[in-house]
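re: ur msg from earlier - yeah i can do the pyridoxal-5'-phosphate complex, just paste it... oh wait u already did. ok heres what im feeding in:
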Amino acid sequence: MDNGQRTRRVCNSTEAVHAAEEGGHWGHALTVPIAQTSTYVFESMESVDNFVSGKETRIDYGRYGNPTQHIAEGKIAKLEGAEAAILFASGMSAVTTTILGMLSSGQHAVIMDDCYRKTAQFCNMVLRKFDIETTFVHAGDYEALEEAIGEKTRVIIAESPTNPHLNVMDLDKVVSIAKSHRIKVIIDSTFATPFNQRPLDFGVDIVIHSATKYLGGHNDLIAGAIAGSQSLVSAIRDYRGILGGVVDPHCAYLLIRGMKTFPLRMARQNQSSLALARFLEGQPKVKKVYYPGLESHPHHKVAKEQMAGFGGVVSFDLDTDLEGTRRFLNALRIPCIGASLGGVESIVSHPSTISYYELAREDRLAIGIADELVRYAVGIEEEEDLINDVEEALRNI
Ligand SMILES: *Cc1c(COP(=O)(O)O)cnc(C)c1O
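and the outut:
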């Protein structure tokens, strides 16, 4: 498939508003009602028989599904161009359930070093307990990736773009390496979103999202999702039923509401982020800007080929010390200081104190987390206001 086609095939607002709602309006309600129930009833024992024998597909208990949740799942499947999608109680529940579902004791996975912190901890602390080994390779080093694959390797786990350095994986390359070894690829696409990139179109097997971020988009819910083929997703759905990380009906409703404006928000966040990145790059008090939309980014070429936009997170190193960085963060008027991203409100994070505080400074530096590193998650505020605010705060360094 050529890249132009892939770029055109990213999701749009018509899909985001209407997908999975074609089934009719329950009680004539325009919006999807919240089915606030824990369990579901059978009309008769014959109906139970039909369910048990598989003649009738329906829900029997809330841990296995919910009508509101199914609409949200249908929307995500449509946005990702997937046969199926399922929701989880959090992005981490999606990550852990998927990996546990796809790997057995004695098997091995290759994962990129620049991955979400808790995903790395899951590999090091949980998988290891069950004799599942993981090898970390540098994101973007395809030779190391290939070398790390052995007899027991079953999956490659990667994110693109990564957090906080916005490294971009060449999905064609990763998929072709995986195919040549007959193993599967999982991509955490939280930072890209289906508006900017659809990994399944590249042959990736499972896409993971922290729906807490751009899909929900309002900093008011915690949820996760996966999308992929019917067979793979349904196998992981069975693990979800056992491990129990389901999303509640009200959260599913909020997610549906959030997703209706997701393409609108994302278009704006892409645009403001690129403008902010370009502005920062021209500032003497900014040492380095990490944003895949900039020509200076090492993965710009790949990003341009495989993404329709570059996302809503801009990271940068200030030309100062820890104290100067703290002054800068305190001086910002619009974004709040916090740990999340992807919502309508801009949020700034200081990775070395917020996410990597338990590492020694040298260990943080070894993975590129300098004291002067700032991660700016751009919201939907006016681009001009955001830039003026940053310009003012830079004076406080
Ligand atoms: C936030 C995040 C997660 C975890 O998601 P939660 O919804 O917080 O559990 C996983 N991966 C990435 C890339 C994230 O940004």
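cool cool. Residues 140 and 284 are 29 Å apart (CA to CA). ping me if u need the other ligands too
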